[in-house]
Amino acid sequence: MKFTVLMPVHEAIDFDIFKKSVNSVINNSLLPSEFLIIVDGNISLQKRIFLLKAKKENNFINIVFKNKLGLVKILNYGLKIAKYKLIARADADDINHKNRFFEQVNFFKKNKVDILGSNINENIKGKKFIKKVPKNPSLLHFSFFNPINHMTIMFKRDKIKKLGSYPDIKYKEDYSLWFLAKIRGYFIANLDIPLVNSRVDSMTMKRRKNIQAICSEFSLYFFLIKKKKFLIFILSFSLLFRIFFLILPNSVYLFLLTRINRFRVL
Questions:
Q1: 196: which DSSP letter?
Q2: Tell me, which fold does domain 1-96 have in CATH?
Q3: What is the pLDDT of residues 15-42, one digit of tens each?
């Protein structure tokens, strides 16, 4: 099965982490048919030289430079120009496991599935955890938290485009898309193994806990209510639950974060 790895890139990413992330795709046990890297705005000369060198050495790499568009527009543009119908999302600051694409493509070959994720290894301020997600997430799972680790996703492009692609909801573009897919009856699954290494640091906390994040919760709520009005009760309760979580003191938030669906790795 031919597939495209879609990776958005922006300047704020640390170069060393970015380099490891790109190399984790290039050195995977199953190489993508296309590695589509879309650069969102200006990036450093160091990153640019690294990318052009990688492209020269690997003929499956396709690099597109765009003016600053923002994540949602970059992702939806990537869906339009990707060469293949099976898409794997990769983040430029996360490290893919050696067998990630082999495991996922193999699952697609053997099962009826539209969207496939997995568990992740997560480094939270120096402590290592495995963040587990349900193998077959239900509508109830989606109503209270995002049961999909977005950096692990592989999906059928045509199915996603039928949903209108990524909604323009800051911080919630992934969550809203998967939630909508679940409402529409798509087959969604997670592999019960970690396939990506991720990390939570002070910058992650700032992105997750701010006024914009709370506004995004309301945007998500109205977006979903518009799609399915009969979910208003459970979505209203879910909205209050997640906003309460966001306004907790950082120490309490971090304490709960490390105990919800996460298992400490000794």
A1: E
A2: Spore Coat Polysaccharide Biosynthesis Protein SpsA; Chain A (3.90.550)
A3: 999 999 999 999 999 999 999 999 999 9
* Cα→Cα distances 120→84, 97, 151, Å: 25, 10, 9
Closest-CA residue to 215 (of 256, 169, 180): 169
Pairwise CA distance, residues 101 & 3, whole Å: 9
Instruction: Report DSSP state, residue 111.
Output: S
Whether residue 57 is predicted with pLDDT greater than 80 in this model: the reply is yes
CA distance 215 to 161: 26
Residue 49: how many other CB atoms lie within 10 Å:
10
- Please list the residue range(s) of the chain that carry CATH number 3.90.550.10: 1-96
β-pairing, 262-264 with 127-131? Answer: antiparallel
Per-residue pLDDT reduced to its tens digit, 213-247: 889 999 999 998 888 777 788 889 888 888 988 88
Q: What is the pTM of this model?
A: 0.92
Residue 138 is given by DSSP the state -
Q: Are strands 3-9 and 34-40 parallel, antiparallel or unpaired?
A: parallel
Beta carbons within 10 angstroms of residue 135's beta carbon: 12
The two tokens of residue 153 are 């996703």
